[in-house]
Amino acid sequence: MSNTNPSSLLFIYLMIISSQSVILICKADASNETGLLHRLWPASKNYTPHATLVDNPKKTLNKPPLRGMQPISKGEEFNYLEGTPSGPKNWGNLNPDWKTCADGKSQSPINIDVKRAHVMPGDLKRAYIDAPARLVNGHDNIGIEWLGDAGGIQVNGSTYKLHQCHWHTPSEHKIDGKKFDAELHIVHKNDKGQKAVISTLHTVGQSDPFIGSLTKKINMLGTKEEIDLGKISASSIKHEGKKYYRYIGSFTTPPCTEGVIWTIEEKVRSISKDQIKLLKGLHQRESRQNARPLQLLGGRPIWIFDIPEEKG
Ligand SMILES: [Zn+2]
């Protein structure tokens, strides 16, 4: 194993995963469109419904937009309260389309065991641009949905367009067993429907400038479903780190679709207590937290790589 080029390993692994994940993604799309991780795409002006969705009379595109950027409609479908009938351990039993939450073999989030991460060459390029966006009250989280071409990222030679970002409090991923106070997920999708998420962990300290720039709007959001943000760029989310972890996982919410490329920034950023409160205050759920418990890593590799410091 030590003589094997890490790039080749990654390539082979991705080929295996993508052949499996396409099936899973198609299945999830067909049967539970509005339940997709962040149920964002149906609300997008760019979204084109596919036949399978139209074929399913139960699913329409007229559901309230983003009622669940992080899937949940008013919170009755599933929750984050351990030991309750709709809690994380039962997600897979609540809906036949969510079976992967229970029997998936590459679920997220996971604990990143740093000493077991394989070193590999870097391959993350960000190229975000200004685009119309709106702040969305997902009822389990808040997030931003971009409505036009907001640029995106390149991972493993494939271009993934930016769709949305949202926060979890506390973090979902752990690093060497340590949980953090918040986690930002920036969700991208390529033209094959495959997803790539960039994750940034936050610990309480100084305020985060990006959330700071949204504070007024978040306060204005209140119980509204959404607020227009005008044109913004995800390049405002500064990335200071050079090191990243990567693994193949899933959506962290039902239907827990697998085949998601996760890229987690090694550098932990700060967030103020008030900002945590602000993000939590909008969860209209009894649990006031929206982090799925850790999932088994199984035999999945975790990679670590460096990229040159980015500007912007
Ligand atoms: Zn998320």
Structural commentary:
The strands form two sheets. Strands 2, 3, 4, 5, 6, 7, 9, 10, 11, 12, 13, 14 and 15 form a 13-stranded mixed β-sheet that branches. A two-stranded parallel sheet has the order 1-8. The longest helix is centred in the N-terminal third of the chain and has 26 residues, at 6-31. By secondary structure, the protein is an alpha+beta fold. It is globular, with a radius of gyration of 18 Å. The chain has two domains: 27-63, no CATH class; 70-306, Carbonic Anhydrase II (Roll), CATH 3.10.200.10. The chain starts with 5 loop residues before the first helix and ends in a 6-residue tail after the last strand. It contains six helices and 15 strands. Zinc ion binds at residues 70, 166, 168, 185, 252. Residues 1-30 form the signal peptide. Residues 76-306 form the Alpha-carbonic anhydrase domain. It comes from Helianthus annuus (Common sunflower). Pfam families: Carb_anhydrase. Keywords: Lyase, Metal-binding, Signal, Zinc.
List the keywords.
312 residues; alpha+beta; Carbonic Anhydrase II; 2 domains; 13-stranded mixed beta sheet; two-stranded parallel sheet; 6 helices; 20% helix; globular; binds zinc ion
Shape: globular
CATH architecture classification of the largest domain: Roll
CATH topology of the largest domain: Carbonic Anhydrase II
How would you characterize the largest beta sheet? 13 strands, mixed
Helix content: 10-25%
Number of domains: 2
CATH class of the largest domain: Alpha Beta
What's the alpha carbon Rg, rounded to whole Å? 18 Å
Enzyme class: lyase
Catalytic activity: hydrogencarbonate + H(+) = CO2 + H2O
Signal peptide: 1-30
EC number: 4.2.1.1
